[in-house]
Amino acid sequence: MKYNIYNYIAVFFSLAMLTTSCVENEDLVQLDPTNDAVDSFWKTDQDALEGVNAAYGSLLTDGTYMRSTPLLLDAKADDARTNSPWASMYNVGHFNSNVADAAIYGWAFETYYQGIYRANQVLTNVPNIAFTDAALKNRILGQAYFLRGLYLFHAVNLFKNVPLPTELAVYYPQKTQAEGWAQVISDFKTASELLPTSYDGVSGLDAGQKGRATKGAALGYLGKAYLFTKDFTNARTTFKQVIDLGIYSLVSNYRDNFTTANENNSESLFEVQFSRDAGGVELGWGGAPTSGWGKTSARAITYAPRAFGWTDVQPTWALFNEYQEEKTTANTIDPRLDATIFYNKPGTKLYGKDFAVFYASSPADLNDLFCRKYQNSDGEFADEYDWRSGINERLLRYADILLMYAECLNETGDTPGAYGYIQMVRNRVGLPDLATVKPGMTQDQMRDQIGHERFLEFPLEGHRFDDIRRWGWLQDATKLEWLKSRDAEFNSYLPGREYFPIPQLEKDNNPGIIQNDSY
User: Fold this and answer.
1) Which residue intervals define the domain RagB/SusD in the entry (predicted)?
2) Which of 46, 238, 411, 453 could pair with 232 in a Cys bridge, judged by C-beta atoms 3.0 to 4.6 Å apart?
3) 318: buried, middle or exposed (CB in 10 Å: 19+, 13-18, 0-12)?
4) Is 96 exposed, middle or buried (0-12, 13-18, 19+ CB in 10 A)?
5) Is residue 183's pLDDT more than 70?
6) Burial (CB count <10 Å: 0-12, 13-18, 19+), residue 177
7) How would you class 40 by CB atoms within 10 Å of its CB: exposed for 0-12, middle for 13-18, buried for 19 or more?
8) Contact indicator for 183, 173 with CB cutoff of 8 Å
């Protein structure tokens, strides 16, 4: 059952909804001195497991992977566009988030620090528990380090200079982005040393449970943090460690990575677990998931095609056109196109409806592009309006490890070595041998090729804008003009707007916080 790791979130942790770097009214509420629930917690192995489960719970709320975080990662890139009628969402995609309106980005910021707070409780209290199972203790601590690293990864990556809570306190000073990345690296490195490669071979309370962080997930994110800081040598070594684990492989059907079919598969290093089996009717937006929630992942309804959801995010024509630049060895269009985008192709069906027939009375929609990734659109459901998508969010795939490793090989002088790892990803979709069609590329040419390969492998998965930012394309006048020609939303870009503003509430409540440039 995908929700196993969240079944034990204690009522105690529902109090931990504030960010650790600011003070809310709730901080002033005193506990009843006759209630010893907090004092009696953190005594047993089971308490520790419930504590780390609460830290996982922050991945499921609206600020993180229920909806907001995918939007923040996708909307600014040239593979996605948004014409949402909701100004807060529209502004995310147009580099115009408003300091006075923290909807979406502020919810994400708050939830990242909620998750950090919960992970810190584990890291503070679990070492003092006398475990009956020492290996379980290490696994729980490893998961807490991983989760803190993941939440900090998002905070540093999206908001630049942020507080770095590593212990329980009232205020935390703002740190530089370099200090932030150093802490992220430290957390993932520690996690990788404590976590198992799988929970199938362990004994204890967490035995066999899917969705928990593993050594491969920690190493994968550690390598990613090195890559984002241009430490290509360490990134190369770390990604090779993941490859050498010998437990990951690409699934044969690319689309299996974005449906309920074949979840937690051989390609997945880490995914957020959603399930339609979550009962209840409440539209839960924040806090710890409860049995009353009737909404699970809201990505599907947010990105859904017109009349099947809100259509707040759509693919760009640049993405559609780039898929058709190179045919497969069978002289067909890259199959990732149809797995990613709904368009007016003969025979295309969505939610049991023929595309051409359904949109016949609306020429604009008939000739438009809609998201197919992460949609429950194969005919089993009529639409996404029940807010109950159970599709797991795949945060890190083995295909990403392969292409990031190829990038590191290229950046460390082994351009010829990059070909083979790129080809592993191309082979799945039947593309010709890159070494044959583009032999002897220079390092610069290979950089552009890797950009193309990543664009077609990971659209609408939250990677493209991260790539644009870390490659420095926004500071390169030629690249920026190219991006504007592909996606008009880049015409709104101003230097500094590659990051989101620090929420005003954080500035008000945490002395000394300096706002990001351009806000």
Assistant:
1) 267-519
2) 411
3) middle
4) middle
5) yes
6) middle
7) exposed
8) no
* Domain spans, the chain: 4-246
**Rounded to the nearest 5°, which phi and psi values hold at 512?**
90, 0
> What per-residue confidence (pLDDT) applies to 39?
65
Count of Cβ atoms closer than 10 Å to residue 155 Cβ: 25
CB 444 within 8 A of CB 476: no
Q: Is pLDDT of 470 > 60?
A: yes
Cα–Cα dist 153/270, whole Å? 14
- Distance from C-alpha of 16 to C-alpha of 377, rounded to nearest angstrom: 36
Give the whole-angstrom CA distance, residue 382 versus residue 393.
21
Please, what's the b/e burial string for 328-359 (b: 16 or more CB within 10 A of its CB; e: otherwise)?
eeeeeebbbbbbbbbbeeeebebbebebeebb
Tokens of 477: 């006048």
According to DSSP, residue 388 is labeled -
Assessment of whether the complete model's pTM goes beyond 0.90: yes
Model confidence band, residue 13 (pLDDT cutoffs 50, 70, 90): very low
- Three-state DSSP class for 395? strand
Type of residue numbered 216: G
Distance from C-alpha of 365 to C-alpha of 183, rounded to nearest angstrom: 46
Q: For 478-491, what is each residue's pLDDT tens digit?
A: 999 999 999 999 99
Determine the topology of domain 4-246 in CATH: 1.25.40
Tens-digit pLDDT profile for residues 247-272: 999 999 999 999 998 999 999 999 99
Work out the burial of residue 276: count CB atoms within 10 Å of its CB; fewer than 13 is exposed, 13-18 middle, 19 or more buried.
Answer: middle
| 8 Å CB contact between 45 and 141 | no
- Using one digit for the tens of pLDDT, what is the confidence trace for 213-249? 999 999 999 999 999 999 999 999 999 999 999 999 9
Distance CA 2, CA 273 (A): 6
> What is the C-alpha to C-alpha distance for residues 7 and 95, in angstroms, rounded to an integer?
38
The per-residue pLDDT of the chain, averaged, comes to 91
Q: What is the 3-state secondary structure (H, E, C) of 150-207?
A: HHHHHHHHHHCCCECCCCCCCCCCECCHHHHHHHHHHHHHHHHHHCCCCCCCCCCCCC
Helices 215-228 and 232-244: angle between axes, nearest 10 degrees = 160
Q: Return the sign of the alpha-carbon dihedral for residues 28, 33, 36, 39.
A: positive
Distant-in-sequence, close-in-space partners of 12: CB < 8 Å, separation ≥ 6: 37, 38, 41
Other residues' Cβ atoms within 10 Å of the Cβ of residue 189: 18
- C-alpha distances (whole Å) from 477 to each of 359, 480, 510 are 40, 5, 37
238-254 burial code (b ≥16 CB/10 A, e <16): bbbbbbeeeebebbeeb
CB atoms within 10 A of CB 279: 11
